[in-house]
């Protein structure tokens, strides 16, 4: 099973999700999205795999989101994808992708990942 986790090691939910994946015997590809942000095409693909608009992947409580002067319209996925690449802290975490099936989940709560692993 090929799994990718968009991970923030400082986030407890992200660490718990990673642990659940590893406890299932899967060694995921770990993308530290804060230091290696996904490009716009990857973000749009994640949105599609999750079945939600890109605006649904925003951490709206982050000060970077709330105080942004350059935030594009939230219904413009292409512009929003470009914006998130410049502001990766605003991306919901963790996002886990089963590369084999093309399915993805947000690990909030971390147990959401179990639907991919079963």
Lay out the secondary structure.
Layout: E1 3-7, H1 12-23, E2 29-32, H2 40-50, H3 63-66, H4 77-86, E3 95-98, E4 103-106, H5 114-117
Parallel strand pairs: 1-2
Antiparallel strand pairs: 1-3, 3-4
Task: Tell me how many strands there are.
Answer: 4
Structural class: alpha+beta
**Tally of domains:** 1
Which CATH-level-2 architecture?
3-Layer(aba) Sandwich
Explain what you see.
With 118 residues, the chain is α+β, with helices and mostly antiparallel strands. The protein has one domain (3-117): Glutaredoxin (3-Layer(aba) Sandwich). Helix content is 35%, strand content 14%. It contains five helices and four strands. It has a four-stranded mixed sheet with strand order 2-1-3-4, with helices on both faces. Strand 1, helix 1 (12-23) and strand 2 (29-32) form a beta-alpha-beta unit. Helix 2 (40-50) crosses helix 4 (77-86). The longest helix is centred in the first third of the chain and has 12 residues, at 12-23. It is globular. The chain starts with a strand and ends with a helix. The mean pLDDT is 97.
Descriptors for this entry?
4 strands, alpha+beta, 5 helices, 118 residues, Glutaredoxin, single chain, four-stranded mixed β-sheet
């Amino acid at each position: 099973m090929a799994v990718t986790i968009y991970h923030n090691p400082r986030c407890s939910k992200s660490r718990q999700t990673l642990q659940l994946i590893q406890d299932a015997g899967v060694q995921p590809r770990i993308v530290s999205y804060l230091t290696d942000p996904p490009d716009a095409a990857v973000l749009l693909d994640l949105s599609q795999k999750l079945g939600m608009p890109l605006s649904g992947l925003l951490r709206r409580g982050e000060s970077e989101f709330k105080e942004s002067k350059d935030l594009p319209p939230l219904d413009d996925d292409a512009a929003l994808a470009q914006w998130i690449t410049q502001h990766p802290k605003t991306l919901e975490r963790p996002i886990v992708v089963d590369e084999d099936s093309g399915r993805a989940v947000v690990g909030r709560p971390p147990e959401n990942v179990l639907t991919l692993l079963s």
